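In response to reviewer comment 3 from the previous cycle, which asked for concrete evidence that the modeling workflow produces usable outputs, we include below a single protein chain processed end to end. The sequence was submitted unchanged, and the resulting structure tokens are shown without manual editing.
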Amino acid sequence: MNLSRSYLVMILVAFFGSQASNAAEMRLSFNHDVRPILSENCFQCHGPDAAAREADLRLDLAEEAYKDRDGSPAIVPGDPEESLLIWMIEAEDAEDQMPPPDSNRSLTEEQKQILRRWIEEGAEYDSHWAFIPPVKHLVPVEYANPVDGFIGARLEEEGLEFSNEADPKTWLRRVSFDLTGLPPTLEDYLDFEAKAKHDGEGAYSQKVDELLASPRYGERMAWQWLEASRYADTDGYQNDGPREMWRWRDWVIDAYNQNLPFDQFTIEQLAGDLLPDPTEEQLTATAFHRNTMTNNEGGTNDEQFRNEAIVDRVNTTMSVWMGVTMACAQCHNHKYDPLTQREYYQMFAYLNNSHESNIVVYPAEQLRQRVDVLEQI
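The workflow returned the following structure tokens.
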């Protein structure tokens, strides 16, 4: 695609920009625009660390920043002139200036204007990104693919244009690597070129469907989940001996290939054994929590490593599903995420209720063989 009709695009962008919903999107974002400035220049002395905090002022929490400080709140939403923060970052006297000159930090004029404008707009704080519900945005420019609409609007804003559309060979190579992690064969190239020439856009859609139906698709998509879930075929400690975890790995790959809904994907991994009449596959899914490192060396303390396994499950479960670094709250209240040490050990206690047992789940063929042998005994 290209943006040869720049004038039309400008009209469309202007039209969508006039819509109320898009006008709201132009407001400054605390997490995107403001937090980086405060984090770099202010939070060291006015942030979550109580031991390092000065003047009993916190700027990382809205209620603290808005608090009346003898008639001079640090931030007055909608009124930068009455906000102590603006007065101090714009002060020329070194004794009043923030950040102080001896900190070797300073705000640029652009950063000062961002803080001023943010306060003018109401100084709205955003919660941690992991707790903000996704918002569906209007596509700013009409294209065949909505993604191109957002890219097109940004390119127009930057005075840039789309690159030329990729030729069939280049496109096939890109989509093959993207969906399967493997390059196309020579036969794939020749076949797709012929179909693209004959069927046009239909050949592209057909090829995507073909790649999505490939077993390689699940293998390609699953690796990120396997990484986040700390999957490994070995124990992980000094001897690092082999262990049987491939059944769970294959379950994840199959889940992607079967397009298993994410809520079901979650339930089966966290509580598949608690479902009514769970299947072998659902029991296998719960091996998510068996991905912890294990130590079978002589002289080890079983309770120590059982405890470490629970800690690992707490940390991994929260990072994978909640997007927060729960591990920091193991020793103290989290300095940045809204998590307390008490909440950490509440989660620990919840996962510590499970009986630590090694349940063997056999493949269907091995299970039938096992049943036959047991019947003969």
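Residues 1-24 have pLDDT under 50 and may be disordered. We consider this sufficient to address the reviewer's concern, and the full set will be provided in the supplementary archive.
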